[in-house]
Design goal:
By secondary structure, the chain is α+β, with helices and mostly antiparallel strands. 33% of the residues lie in helices and 22% in strands. It has 16 helices and 23 strands.
Length: 505
């Protein structure tokens, strides 16, 4: 029997291939970044072929590092940056346009028009989502409205849509599928039927024939290399021919699953390019009154779907990259902690990184980023510290909304993602939330969740109880800040956020 399960983790800035053993431990990992393309202010794109190339490279890289072969791998799971939208030609495999990234705001005019009569919550009852530039549906509409010839080809059934999970699974297996979690981020899927909603498709002008088949998050979708879709310049061949692709979850739902949040009321927060808190709400969707998203948590095979409330924050880790790449304040992201520690506090400034508007709980696409409270006293260290603190403040706003919607008081927050190794941030996060913050022994919970889903589908793990036994605590931070100081800092943050509103006319 094969001893390992692997996952492709296709993220916003890089792609990774991680191999796990039965205990959920990382055996090998390979990672490569891809370009961020900014054609205009507010526009963000990726080259889908570059992502496919990186995927092949990291698969080969992780196998080489581990010394394993395809015979050792029982199944592959896929997890992905959600909402990032690609349309390609069914026959040639050529994208009609670059992938439009979830952070992209070009669809604000489309969203405003769709909400002109019925408001921002026009489709919320069916989809759990407000009208916002974040989601895939308006991005598909933009491509069909703006790229010559695509409307006619789409009507003829010659074009396919997919988020990055669908693109990679199609490339690997030739199957045009997605799972319920990714479908729930398009603004085109009905939460109750778990199928594309014909009324919304009609309003958006999107032919159903473009859309992938919606599957569960854990089942065999196809095998690598069998009926392989056309590949541009494929020279190296795929190292995992014949291995089943059997798990598919959007990255945040994969982290929820990897953190084994299987009971209603359990929550996790992932610190990546953006920050995403999800709370399991059980087998019924909970409509948010506090600005959160109602989304699918996961669906394992024929079992009932599990729903979640989500608070999505657009810019957290991306702000540290901005300090590095755009401002040159640091040479590497890891340096930000030392720079922030060079000062005792934020020097009276707040940094609200509304670069792509504000997501939860505000949903204001016309907001833009601000630094407030500047004096001549402020230096590089204060800016670095305010940048880190902004992640913790935004998380507090989401947690407040989540407790309001669910009626559940969070006792501790499970955390994962690249920023959880920043000790200064994790302590400040615990302080500003006033709850313990817990990092698991395996911090790669996004990839782990996809691997778990794939492993369950092929019997590598027998049930979720077995997965629960793998979870272990690595480190815990507890609150040390007094309540008056906490309240004062948070009040300043709330005031700063209002300064971002209504910037774009």
């Amino acid at each position: 029997m094969s001893k390992y399960v692997a996952a492709i983790d296709q993220g916003t800035t890089s792609t990774r291939f991680i191999i796990f053993d039965h205990g959920g431990n990382v055996v090998a990992v390979d990672q490569k970044e891809h370009r961020q393309i900014y054609p205009k202010p507010g526009w963000v794109e990726h080259d889908a072929f570059e992502i496919w190339e990186r995927t092949q490279e990291v698969i080969a890289g992780a196998l080489a590092k581990s010394g394993l072969s395809s015979e050792d791998i029982a199944a592959i799971g896929v997890t992905n940056q959600r909402e990032t939208t690609l349309v390609w030609d069914k026959n040639t495999g050529e994208p009609v346009y670059n992938a439009i990234v979830w952070q992209d705001t070009r669809t604000d005019v489309i969203c405003n028009k769709l909400g002109k009569q019925a408001g921002q919550n026009r489709f919320r009852r069916k989809t759990g989502l407000p009208l916002a530039t974040y989601f895939s549906g308006p991005k598909i509409k933009w491509i069909l409205d703006n790229i010559k010839g695509t409307k006619v080809k789409a009507r003829k059934g010659e074009l396919l849509f997919g988020n990055m999970d669908t693109w990679l699974i199609w490339k690997l297996t030739g199957e045009h599928v997605t799972d319920v979690t990714n479908a729930s981020r398009t603004m085109l899927m009905n939460l109750k039927t778990l199928d594309w909603d014909d009324d919304i498709l009609k309003v958006m002008g999107i032919p159903r024939a473009m859309l992938p088949q919606i599957k569960s998050s854990s089942e065999i979708y196809g095998t690598v290399g069998m009926g392989l879709a056309p590949v541009q310049g494929q020279s190296r061949g795929l190292s995992l021919q014949g291995i089943p692709v059997a798990g598919d979850l959007g990255d945040q739902q994969a982290a929820l699953f990897g953190q084994t949040c299987f009971k209603a009321g359990e929550a996790k927060n992932t610190y990546g390019t953006g920050c995403f808190m999800l709370m399991n709400t059980g087998e019924a969707p909970v409509q948010s009154k506090a600005g959160l998203l109602t989304t699918l948590g996961y669906k394992i095979g024929d079992s009932e779907a599990v729903y979640a409330l989500e608070g999505s924050i657009a810019i957290t880790g991306a702000l540290i990259q901005w300090l590095r790449d755009n401002m040159g304040l640091i040479q590497s992201s890891a340096e930000v902690e030392a720079l922030a520690k060079s000062v005792e506090d934020n020097g009276g400034i707040y940094f609200v990184p509304a670069f792509s508007g504000l997501y939860a709980p505000y949903w204001k696409s016309d907001a833009r980023g601000v630094i407030v409270g500047m004096t001549r006293y402020v230096n590089r260290g204060h800016i670095a510290r305010a940048a880190l603190e902004s992640t913790a403040y935004q998380t507090r706003e989401v947690l407040d909304a989540m407790e309001q919607d669910s009626g559940v008081r969070l006792r501790a927050l499970k955390v994962d993602g690249g920023m959880v190794f920043n000790e200064l941030l994790m302590q400040f996060q615990s302080d500003i939330l006033n709850v313990p913050v817990v990092r698991p022994k395996v911090a790669e919970t996004t990839a782990l969740g996809a691997a778990y889903a794939a492993g369950l589908a092929v019997g590598f793990w027998k049930d979720t109880d077995e997965l629960k036994k793998n979870w272990g605590r690595d480190k815990e931070w507890t609150p040390k800040m007094d309540s008056r100081h906490r309240a004062g800092l948070y009040s300043g943050w709330k005031k700063a956020v209002t300064r971002t509103f209504d910037w774009v006319e």
